[in-house]
# Entry
Amino acid sequence: MSVMKRLSGILQAKANKALDKAENPADMLDLSYEKQVENLQKVRRALADVATARKRLELQASQLQAQAQKLQDQAKQALGQGQEDLAREALARRATLAEQLESLGTQHQQVETQQQQLETTATRLQTQVDAFRTKKETLKASYTASKAQASIGEAVSGISESMTDAGMTLDRAQDKIAQMQARAGAIDELLDTGALPDALGGGGDDIQKQLDATSRAGQVDAELAALKAQVGAGAESPGLAAGTAPGTDTAPGGDASGEGGNA
Amino acid sequence: MIVRILGEARYDVPEADLPAIEQLDAQLVDALERGDEAEFSGTLADLIGQVRHTGTLVAADDVRTSELVVPHEGSTLAEVRDLLAQGA
# Structure
């Protein structure tokens, strides 16, 4: 059976029921108007929540991107140090981040859709509220005519149906926001603890530690070499010879053999 | 004939344009029964477009009630099913 006829019948039944209950159809109009305004406020609040959630996603995406860039740099640095395994590890973690980023991108699209839907709903409700505000006084003035009563009943019921639709959009958006907030919270926690790359083992900065250790080792080697050179040159000085090898007759020779043993 | 689009307005559609609207209504019933979401949303959009295109907007102080009611633009199949279930 026709969808349009069935809906018309439902609407009429609702209108009649509402009119039967109402002592004065004019009260129905005022009540309906208040509900519409209330609903519009709810949609606007949800819209603000969606915008906040969207900003949070964007912030997280940029944080993930920064981490991915850092891992890329670390991979380069590791290769420069000849540590291929470490470079491989950094790139593997970067791949995990790329997956996270991709899923954030999908979420971002969904949030944008929610936002658009809510904006459409808000605009629609605003238009409806504005139109209703101006026409309810006209309707009130003519409500005594029985035909006008039926029209009032239908207008009010029709609006309450469309408010149900708006309510559904609202419910969907709120579910989505809740989901997003839970996920965003989890990602924040991962970013905070640096545990995000833990899927591949180790904390986020252990690559940096290894790189630092290697470059520190390199620095130590360089300093040691410099020191050795210094010590080798300084061995000629009598002060050092006397200090390091007291009582030795052949001080320079002893020092030289000692250094050879250390190297 | 007065046709109401839920959440929007009433339109006065000339009798001559009703067959096209009824045809789309029948397609909507078919999509509902088959649970074909894509077909449903496409047909609903066409139906709403047709009512807007062929009908003239009914003024607020016009007290005529509607004989046909079209679901709100962008309604999902489930939402319309819920709506129809209220009359069952």
Q: What stands out?
A: The interface with chain B takes residues 1-15, 117, 120, 124, 128, 131, 134-135, 138-139, 142, 145, 147-148, 150-151, 154, 158-159, 161-162, 164-166, 168 of chain A (CB under 8 Å). Chain A has seven helices and no strands. Chain A has a mean pLDDT of 74. The CA atoms of residues 17 and 153 of chain A lie 9 Å apart.
